[in-house]
Amino acid sequence: MPHLPARFAGIILSFAPLFVHRSWRHAQALLIGAILCPGRRTVASVLRIMGRARDRHFVNTHRVLSRTAWSPHAGAHMLLRLLVEAFVPHGPVVLALDDTIERRWGRRIQARGIYRDPVRSSGAHFVKTSGLR
């Protein structure tokens, strides 16, 4: 792992409790690479930017997101807390919600339905689409 400034390392280390020791090494590389990666942040792009594209165990880093028992909800909670502490240490926090439909399909998608698409619809034109709200 590259040597990080203390302030930056402290932020990255706050996500360590989400992972077990073996998967934390891979997750740490993904976190740092996602920050450094220009363009699309796919796992392959992140590993290339970290200089790990030719690792023998390249696939193990992919498994951190799909097979490791970690909670994305808890990770999102930690990230939100860090962002609020950094940008709004005092005062109220105003949040906005995006009701864009996520167009996904497949056997394992449980909550898929037909909804009004707010992006493609207008006051006079009604567009329905299938996906997750």
Can you walk me through this structure?
The chain has 2 domains: about 5-85, no CATH class; about 95-133, no CATH class. It has helices spanning about 5-15, 20-35, 45-50, 60-65, 70-85, and strands at about 115, 130. The longest helix has 16 residues, at about 20-35. The termini are far apart. It is about 40% helix and about 5% strand. The chain has a two-stranded antiparallel sheet. By secondary structure, the chain is mainly α.
Counting H and I runs of at least 4 residues, what is the number of helices? 5
Radius of gyration: 19 Å
User: How many discrete structural domains?
Assistant: 2
Strand runs, count: 2
What's the overall geometry?
globular
The side-by-side strand order for the widest beta sheet comes to 1-2
Output the helix-strand order.
HHHHHEE
Helix content: 40-55%
Q: Characterize the biggest β-sheet.
A: 2 strands, antiparallel
Give the N-terminus to C-terminus distance in angstroms: 38 Å
Category from helices, strands and their pairing: mainly alpha
Taking pLDDT < 50 over at least 5 consecutive residues as the criterion, the unreliable ranges are: none
Average of per-residue pLDDT values: 81
Classify the beta-strand content into a percent band. 5-15%
